[in-house]
Write a structure and sequence with these properties.
It is found in: Cytoplasm. Homotetramer. Belongs to the phosphofructokinase type A (PFKA) family. ATP-dependent PFK group I subfamily. Prokaryotic clade 'B1' sub-subfamily. β1, α1 and β2 form a beta-alpha-beta unit. The chain has about 325 residues and is of the alpha/beta class. The termini are far apart. The protein folds into 2 domains: about 180 residues, 3-Layer(aba) Sandwich (Rossmann fold), CATH 3.40.50; about 110 residues, Phosphofructokinase domain (Rossmann fold, 3-Layer(aba) Sandwich), CATH 3.40.50.460. The protein is elongated and about 70 Å long. The structure holds adenosine-5'-diphosphate.
Length: about 325
């Protein structure tokens, strides 16, 4: 293998730049040429492809977002779109591809592998919802952003003796809500993977009031509904007024934490190593602090498991 490509796709996450840097530097270190494909699969179809040098990825390890930009591309879901993509790869002489993204992007990577094009996936998403890896690139940074925001909300919640409902990202996975809830001592955490109800939330508020606690923090993963819906449901049952905060896209941005930068560097480098070894259709990940790789199709057919012990722990510690 002499020339490889790298792209970022789907939702961006802090640390993607550190992963791009690792891919580029590791490849050049081993004598390969590297091509940056801009705007994910869209840029692959459009031929928005440029050669990257050591200096192209200088000064980006600490930056959020992705210098390669990202996009969603319906055309790539069609056979015709993918045939154009393969032609573009051939035109540039690219023989292997690193795809940094979430499960949607990996569906695309599988399709390329099925067409005989060596592709390796690197898990980059703030949701931490990819099986086969303990952590995805961006999760730790997003978590720290959420915690910083909740700490500030907690100050005003305590001063005004109010109940705050905070909506965090996580359509299918409650990791951001669960981890931030434990890290911030939230009174209630509503996530798709758990059965807690509005009645449970109300019971906790009332239990707190009985011991003189007049404020509480309730975290809602967007997958279970909006914070406004939860506020309305609480109001209907109890007449308790709540304040709603939707953290939204601030969770996606910001300078990556040290953990995310190191993870991205290790995973990006491993992806290049696998391409050099002639592997394809694999996803790199980290499990028990070891860099591993799995069949990407297996990853897509499994479901990410949330840490059940932490759900119980959160309930035990917020009595
Ligand atoms: P994420 O990677 O963050 O989960 P998306 O689900 O939006 O993001 O997927 C990113 C892109 O991956 C899509 O816009 C599309 O180009 C490509 N993709 C997703 N699913 C498929 C599929 N089944 N076949 C081919 N490409 C796909």
């Amino acid at each position: 293998m002499k020339k490889i490509g790298v792209l970022t796709s789907g939702g961006d996450s802090p640390g993607m730049n550190a992963a791009v840097r690792a891919v580029v530097r590791k490849a050049i270190f081993h004598g390969l040429e590297v091509y940056g494909i801009y705007q994910g699969y869209k840029g692959l179809i459009d031929g928005h492809i440029e050669k990257l040098e050591v200096g192209s990825v200088g000064d980006i390890i600490h930056r959020g977002g992705t210098i390669l930009y990202t996009a969603r591309c319906e055309e790539f879901k069609t056979e015709e779109g993918r045939a154009i993509a393969i032609k573009q790869l051939e035109k540039f002489g690219i023989e292997g591809l690193v795809v940094i993204g979430g499960d949607g992007s990996f569906q695309g990577a599988v399709k390329l592998t099925e067409l005989g094009f060596p592709t390796i996936g690197v898990p980059g998403t703030i949701d931490n919802d990819i099986p086969g890896t303990d952590w995805t690139i961006g999760f730790d940074t997003a978590l720290n952003t959420v915690i910083d925001a909740i700490d500030k909300i907690r100050d005003t919640a305590t001063s005004h003796e109010r109940q705050f409902i905070i909506e965090v990202m996580g359509r299918n996975a409650g990791d951001i809500a669960l981890w931030s809830g434990v890290a911030d001592g939230a009174e209630s955490i509503l996530i798709p993977e758990d059965t807690s109800t509005i009645d449970d939330v109300v019971n906790r508020i009332e239990q707190g009031k009985q011991r003189g606690k007049e404020h509480s923090i309730i975290i809602v993963a967007e997958g279970v509904g909006t914070a406004s819906d939860v506020a309305a449901a609480i109001k209907e049952k109890t007449d308790i007024d709540t304040r709603v905060t939707v953290l939204g896209h601030i969770q996606r941005g910001g300078s990556p934490t040290a953990l995310d930068r190191v993870l991205a560097s290790r995973l990006g480098a491993k992806a290049v190593e696998l391409l050099i070894e002639g592997q394809q259709g694999r996803m790199v990940g980290i499990q028990e602090n070891k860099i591993v790789h799995h069949d990407i199709l297996d990853v897509l057919t499994k479901k990410h498991e949330i840490c059940k012990d932490m759900i119980s722990l959160a309930k035990e510690l917020s009595i």
